[in-house]
């Protein structure tokens, strides 16, 4: 059953990706431009964004308006997000916003670092709230004419507590809860909502991991899975399925079984 409008044709659509200078966000930006969308890409790495925009626009036919736009942004700066949102909205109705900004450093309670915990919170979760604050009034206003879609990139790390995920996991759990609540509030008002829960994806974020990452896929594969999920109108997009289905089963276990299972699987 489709919970959102199916997105199969990207020609003429405008998408704002927040956090697309590397990893899943960058691969998704490239795929959307290749599919005919206009993509406004925001992140802190201004040069990386400009290099992406120049490379994408260079592939277009002569005389074709640019479809890749670089818009540098620090999501932890609420005023900067407001200004960036106004720049985006001035270019016309916004069909989709994808919040992909993320930060990860492994942490256990024995090495609790409040500054690091708060950095995770500000980038992974509060930044999404800044974007919502800046966009929701405009998206609701335009919904009767141009329906919009909000997509939040979370993680299977948000399903339940995991070792070494003390700072990261709670922010992803918050995003999942946020997406669920937004869907209930906005679906009948013409604003679609989806949440993206990847397993292990080969990105700069996961590169420092020294442990084996089951079912590891590339960022390009992740981008294609996301496009497939949107095309089906799914609310939750999770992949790779052979790993995420296991995580979903673990989510159902009572604590007396869950904790021993995680200790056995991770050795921690």
Per CATH, which architecture?
3-Layer(aba) Sandwich
Task: Quickly count the helices.
Answer: 8
Q: Output the strand order for the largest sheet.
A: 3-2-1-4-5-6-9
Strand tally is 9
What does this structure look like?
The structure is a single chain. By secondary structure, this protein is α/β, with parallel strands linked by helices. It has one domain: Rossmann fold (3-Layer(aba) Sandwich), CATH 3.40.50.720. It contains eight helices and nine strands. A seven-stranded parallel sheet has the order 3-2-1-4-5-6-9, sandwiched between helices. The chain is globular.
Short account of what is shown:
The protein has eight helices and nine strands. It has 268 residues and is α/β, with parallel strands linked by helices.
What would the keywords be for this entry?
alpha/beta; two-stranded parallel sheet; 8 helices; 268 residues; 46% helix; 15% strand; Rossmann fold; seven-stranded parallel β-sheet; single chain
Task: Please outline the helices and strands.
Elements: E1 14-18, H1 23-34, E2 38-42, H2 46-58, E3 68-70, H3 78-89, E4 96-99, H4 114-142, E5 148-153, H5 169-186, E6 191-198, E7 201-202, E8 217-218, H6 219-232, E9 236-239, H7 241-252, H8 255-266
Parallel strand pairs: 1-2, 1-4, 2-3, 4-5, 5-6, 6-9, 7-8
């Amino acid at each position: 059953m489709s919970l959102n409008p199916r997105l199969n044709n990207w020609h003429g659509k405008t998408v704002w990706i927040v956090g697309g200078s590397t990893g899943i966000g960058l691969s998704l930006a490239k795929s959307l431009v290749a599919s005919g969308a206009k993509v406004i890409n925001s992140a802190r790495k201004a040069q990386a964004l400009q290099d992406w925009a120049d490379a994408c626009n260079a592939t277009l036919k002569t005389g074709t308006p640019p479809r890749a736009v670089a818009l540098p942004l620090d999501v932890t700066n609420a005023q900067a997000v407001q200004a960036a949102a106004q720049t985006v909205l001035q270019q016309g109705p916004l069909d989709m916003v994808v919040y992909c900004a993320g930060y990860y450093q492994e942490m256990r309670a024995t090495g609790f670092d409040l500054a690091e915990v708060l950095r995770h919170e500000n980038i992974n979760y509060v930044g999404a709230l800044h974007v919502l604050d800046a966009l929701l009034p405009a998206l609701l206003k335009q919904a009767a004419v141009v329906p919009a879609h909000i997509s939040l990139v979370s993680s299977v790390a948000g399903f339940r507590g995991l070792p070494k995920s003390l700072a990261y996991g709670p922010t992803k759990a918050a995003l999942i809860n946020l997406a669920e609540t937004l869907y209930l509030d906005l679906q009948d008002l013409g604003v679609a909502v989806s949440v993206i829960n990847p397993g292990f994806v080969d990105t700069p974020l996961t590169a420092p991991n020294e442990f084996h990452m089951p079912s590891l896929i590339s960022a390009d594969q992740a981008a294609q899975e996301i496009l497939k999920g949107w095309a089906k109108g799914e609310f939750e997009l999770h992949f790779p399925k052979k790993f995420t289905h296991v995580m979903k089963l673990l989510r159902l276990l009572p604590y007396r079984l869950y904790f021993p299972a995680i200790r056995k699987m991770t050795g921690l």
